[in-house]
Design goal:
It contains 1 helix and 11 strands; from the N terminus they run H-E-E-E-E-E-E-E-E-E-E-E. It has 194 residues and is α+β, with helices and mostly antiparallel strands. The relative contact order is 0.17. The model has no long low-confidence stretch (mean pLDDT 81).
Length: 194
């Protein structure tokens, strides 16, 4: 009724089971290692993407005020912006910031420069070292020379004309503002708030 196994056969079955068990443990360990490496890589990539996304949103300029210089011919030949860094932004290097103008006369893109011969230069820097905004109280006055007859860019703006100005920092964050020239400019106006 009962069959008895010999000890030799029982040992062979035990070794085969042990080999299969060890193989399964090795395969599981290798799979776990691959999963841990992949999870670590994905976490690193997610952190880098999150930091880049955050900087593209927060590392931008804030426009404090904007005005224009009115010429004798009742046009605006210069735009002046007072800028600060936006809340939560880190240091912003204005020399690495680009400006894009889009309006009725076309589109122009150029970099801001702290030298005075550039059509987009930084005139007054209040509390700023090397054209870098580091503190929330730092202010910089950026002047855009529009008069193409005087080494400017784009062209002067007439009464009622609109212009979209976009500042893009080196982190890729943008600040956009629409300039609307008043419908009437008079000889008495030296400057107009936009």
């Amino acid at each position: 009724m009962f069959e008895f196994m010999q000890e030799e056969e029982r040992g062979q079955v035990g070794i085969g089971t042990l080999i299969v068990f060890i193989a399964m443990v090795l395969v599981a360990a290798i799979a776990a290692g691959v999963l841990i490496n992949t999870a670590g890589f994905l976490q690193t990539q997610a952190e880098a993407t999150g930091e880049e996304s955050t900087s593209q949103v927060s590392e931008r300029l804030q426009i404090v005020s904007q005005s224009g210089n009115v010429t004798a011919g009742d046009t605006v030949d210069e735009l002046t912006f007072v800028v600060a860094k936006a809340p939560g932004a880190g240091a912003i290097d204005l020399n690495q910031t680009t400006v894009e103008l889009i309006g009725e006369q076309g589109q122009e893109v150029f970099e801001i420069d702290s030298s005075t011969d550039n059509p987009a230069n930084i005139e007054d820097i209040l509390g700023v070292d090397n054209a870098v905004l580091t503190d929330s109280s730092d202010r910089a006055e950026i002047t855009l020379n529009l008069d193409t007859t005087n080494d400017g860019i784009y062209g002067t703006l007439g009464e009622g004309e609109r212009l979209t100005v976009t500042f893009t920092t080196d982190a890729g964050a943008t600040t956009q503002i629409e300039i609307r020239i008043p419908t009437t400019l008079t000889q008495e106006d030296n400057s107009v708030r936009l």
